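From the methods appendix. Each design record in this collection lists the tokenized structure first, followed by the designed amino acid sequence. Records were kept in a plain field format so they could be parsed without special tools. The example shown here is representative of the layout used throughout.

RECORD:
FOLD TOKENS (360 positions):
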């Protein structure tokens, strides 16, 4: 039988405010699952409920067929790593790591062996005698991760563990968290508001918005087949363009109006019965065309900024400001032609904002 972590219909109210609404999902042992959501979407509350630090208003959590209801945090076989490290300031790194092992009454030699193994894995051997205030943010977080791992839990919960670190450290520690996860083969739930972190770490991503799951899918499907415009703009930020447009004709080809020109956009398997749609596309999938043809869109350049490697160009399609890249500088007010890569287009219903064509 497959080993599973099952979250069943979890809801949470603070006073009368509903911050988690009927959350259900299931993860297999060994998968790295990232919960991605904006600040205030309920990510920390969900992790705290799984860890037993907060009581759910409704629902169940089951790990390996064991219901966690009424189990204290220390009985749950779940370890949590926090954004602010939460180390005990009066204890050395080693004492912090050893604490939960001492509580479990292990022999001193086996405690030392475990600490040694985990310190090698996280490269903190030289820091074990130091106190938290003698460590940098990245070192503190390594110690906090070691403290969680040394217990050998079934399930790891990471609550934005890299948010307080600067870029270089974030990348190093992110790679290490992924490596440790692969080695330990546990349930890992990792919370972040950073879409790049989510895409690079996850086997599967859960998109959370206002306490509800909007989509749970592989990173590739989240990018290529976002369930709605919210997911598309959130995971592709800041390079996602939306174009409000009218359908000129929908038969075997979808023809739309862009800057007063009718262009064929994509082939259709069935006609769309709509007048208006929203077209979504990443900046990388818009190309400047040196010739104009029936598929090119005329556009006047509004701004052109150097990015360090190329130029980011902006202009209007209908009433929407869109951006794309150019190899060369283009003067403001130049009239150019662009094309939208058909295989990278998403089409959304302009009222419901749901994606309406299932396959490209
Ligand atoms: P996230 O981690 O995604 O930023 P949180 O889970 O911390 O979101 O918070 C979700 C919502 O629940 C927020 O609106 C927050 O204000 C509210 N909330 C969190 N903890 C409490 C609490 N102890 N009492 C009342 N409201 C809370
Ligand atoms: Mg939080």
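DESIGN:
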């Amino acid at each position: 039988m497959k080993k599973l972590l099952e979250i069943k219909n979890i809801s949470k109210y603070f006073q009368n405010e509903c911050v988690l609404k009927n959350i259900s999902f299931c993860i297999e042992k060994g998968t790295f699952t990232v919960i991605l959501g904006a600040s205030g979407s309920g990510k920390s509350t969900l992790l705290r409920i799984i860890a037993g630090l907060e009581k759910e208003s409704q629902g169940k959590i089951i790990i390996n067929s064991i219901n966690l209801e009424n189990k204290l945090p220390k009985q749950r076989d779940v370890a949590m790593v926090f954004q602010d490290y939460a180390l005990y300031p009066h204890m050395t790194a080693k004492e912090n790591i050893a604490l939960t092992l001492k509580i479990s009454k292990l022999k001193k030699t086996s405690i030392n062996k475990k600490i040694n193994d985990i310190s090698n894995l996280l490269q903190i051997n030289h820091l074990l005698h130091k106190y938290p205030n003698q460590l940098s943010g990245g070192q503190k977080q390594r110690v906090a991760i070691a403290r969680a791992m040394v217990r050998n839990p079934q399930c790891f919960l990471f609550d934005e563990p890299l948010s307080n670190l600067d870029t270089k450290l974030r990348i190093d520690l992110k790679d290490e968290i992924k490596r440790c996860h692969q080695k330990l083969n546990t349930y890992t739930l990792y919370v972040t508001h950073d879409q790049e972190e989510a895409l690079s770490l996850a086997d599967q991503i859960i998109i959370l918005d206002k306490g509800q799951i909007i989509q749970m899918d592989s990173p590739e499907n989240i990018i290529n087949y976002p369930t709605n415009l919210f997911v598309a703009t959130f995971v592709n930020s800041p390079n996602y363009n939306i174009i409000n447009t009218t359908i000129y004709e929908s038969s075997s080809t979808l023809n739309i109006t862009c800057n007063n020109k009718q262009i064929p956009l994509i082939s259709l398997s069935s006609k769309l019965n709509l007048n208006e749609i929203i077209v979504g596309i990443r900046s990388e999938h818009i190309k400047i065309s040196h010739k104009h043809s029936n598929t090119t869109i005329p556009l006047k350049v509004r701004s052109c900024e150097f990015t360090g490697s190329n130029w980011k160009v902006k202009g209007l399609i209908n009433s929407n400001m869109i951006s794309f890249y150019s190899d060369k500088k283009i003067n403001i007010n130049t009239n150019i032609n662009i094309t939208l890569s058909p295989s990278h287009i998403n089409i959304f219903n302009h009222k419901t904002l749901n994606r309406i064509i299932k396959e490209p």
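APPENDIX NOTE: The longest helix spans residues 167-184.
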